[in-house]
Amino acid sequence: MLPSGPMSSSSNKEGSMARTPSIAVVIEGGLVQVTLVQDWPGQVPLPYVVIVDYDDDGATDDELTTFSIGNEILDARCHMEIPSVYESFSKPALSPRTILSTLGVEDDGEARSPLQIAQYVMQSIVNLHTRINATEQAPTGNDYKKLYVLVNCGLIDLLKSLGDPCNFGK
């Protein structure tokens, strides 16, 4: 599941939240039609998007790239795309943000107050606790990891929203 809520965006200079950039790779019949980015920061160069297709049926040797992953030698059709910026794309296209919204991922770019962040973290802890209790089993190591990440990231967001100048890393 993709993150949503106060931990899905990074702050910009003005203190408001910037939307998380999104990327869509549009495929039809197994062929890439277009790659789009939305909410891409203007000062950041566009990314290289690598397309890897392991379906090599009908491909000639010069269309395949051979590489190894672990102990396996694999062939794939590979190529690089430089995406178009959705906001300035000249053809009608479905917005990556719209697709994400349909999938339940929201990132409105609005700064959240310290109270909203604390409420989100508290509700997430309650939801995790309820899920653990519903299984009627002892919490697992994975449950404790989720709780740690939830609390740690929530507290970092809370401290940032209160103006803490510390660099908390990634």
Could you describe the 3D structure shown?
- By secondary structure, the protein is an alpha+beta fold.
- The protein has three helices and eight strands.
- The chain has helices at 96-102, 114-135, 141-161, and strands spanning 10-11, 17-18, 22-28, 31-38, 49-53, 65-69, 72-81, 84-85.
- The strands form three sheets. Strands 3-4-8 form a three-stranded mixed sheet. A three-stranded antiparallel sheet has the order 5-7-6, with no helix packed on it. The protein has a two-stranded antiparallel sheet with strand order 1-2.
- Helix 2 (114-135) packs antiparallel against helix 3 (141-161).
- The protein is extended and about 55 Å long.
- The model is unreliable at 1-16 (pLDDT under 50).
SS elements, strand count:
8
What would you call the quaternary organization?
Answer: single chain
Unreliable parts: 1-16
How far do the termini sit from each other?
A: 19 Å
Strand fraction band?
15-25%
Number of helices: 3
* Structural class based on helices, strands and sheet pairing: alpha+beta
